[in-house]
Design goal:
Layout lengths: L2 H33 L2 H6 L1 E9 L7 E4 L1 H15 L2 E10 L4 E11 L2 E14 L2 E9 L2 H8 L2
Parallel strand pairs: 1-6
Antiparallel strand pairs: 1-2, 3-4, 4-5, 5-6
Length: 146
């Protein structure tokens, strides 16, 4: 084999191993989320977990560190009475993993079913960063408003 082919095979093997590790971390999280196991969910987060929420609402922005991220998630639950309806897709590649989920939000007599994409970075087998993308950001902003 030529050096180039051997090098490419190593890259592909490394990518496959990294993809498998990311898929495993995201799958552990998805299973805990589907089970409603808050302790297992929190155990999936790296101590330096960072959560990024988009939008124009009091929770938008970056929440750095596991305690700050968990506080933001608790506030989301309080403001939106958030409930997981289902995980439609679990995806993984050599750099990121993702979950496409459906959730219901309800507050003050209002209710909505929302499609959300959560993109994860993984470090040391744990979720280290999450970017949340909502299909209907305006609806999310309304639920998260003061």
């Amino acid at each position: 084999m030529t050096r180039e082919i051997m090098s490419m095979e190593k890259v592909l093997a490394d990518d496959a191993a990294q993809t498998a590790a990311i898929r495993a971390a995201v799958a552990r999280y998805a299973a805990a989320w589907q089970a409603g196991d808050r302790a297992a969910i929190a155990a999936c987060y790296h101590d330096e977990f960072t959560l990024h929420y988009a939008g124009h609402n009091p929770l938008a922005g970056t929440h750095r560190g596991k305690p700050a991220a968990l506080a933001a998630l608790a506030e989301v639950a309080r403001r939106a009475n958030r409930k997981l309806l289902g995980i439609d897709e679990l995806m993984a590649g050599p750099r990121r993993g993702a979950i496409l989920a459906r959730e219901s939000f309800s507050r003050d007599g209002r209710a909505a079913e929302l499609e959300r994409l959560l993109v994860y970075a993984v470090r040391d087998g744990l979720l280290s960063e999450c970017w949340v993308y909502d299909r209907d950001q305006a609806a999310v902003d309304a639920f998260f408003a003061d």
